[in-house]
């Protein structure tokens, strides 16, 4: 009698074991054992591979050889192309007032990276179209922590003694396209110059520059520049504008 289960009697109990499965995948090993391996279209039969005779490099060795071939390829490019590129070599000339901006970008050889759209602009304060010393001082006040007396690292500027008013650095990575980030920086610089040239803002020339960000940077570097006033004279009560002090009445009994 055909049945879907095989039963056996043990200890007066009937134990049944299922001999079927709802899926045909479980029966695949049994069919393969009976009828041999099933042919695979476009596959590779490993039985055709010969036994390894220790006469070839393993996969790691071939990877190392490929890297050395790439390195040799670039050495050949340097040997053959660099002499031809010397004809285009130009001596370094510091930026002039006609080219006040230095734009810095980061590229990862065509690979996508979150820093690729980022743009950074560094400009000397005295190269901006500012009107007078009051506008120069106001621009540095408005820049805040973005102003530094020395050029930032990787800014494209060298430490030039002729630059007396420092540098302003503005970065932007909020937009997906590099041109959009650069446009935002350009608009921000235009607004900063317009506010600094505003005659109503000239009253801030009595304010000292806030250099706490420079002190924090020197303290973080741990090179001793923050000790014993090596970072310059810190603002004190003597720098506070006297005209801002409230007028107090004279003390009783004081001589006129």
TrEMBL record:
Region (Disordered): 201-256
GO terms, biological process: mitochondrial translation
One Pfam family per UniProt: MRP-S28
Matching InterPro entries: Ribosomal_mS35_mit, Ribosomal_mS35_mt
GO CC annotations, alphabetized: mitochondrial small ribosomal subunit
Domain of life per record: Eukaryota
Domain called Small ribosomal subunit protein mS35 mitochondrial conserved: residue spans: 91-244
Entry's Gene Ontology molecular function annotations: structural constituent of ribosome
Feature: compositional bias, Basic and acidic residues: 209-218, 228-245
Name of this chain's protein: Small ribosomal subunit protein mS35 mitochondrial conserved domain-containing protein
Provenance organism: Coniophora puteana (strain RWD-64-598) (Brown rot fungus)
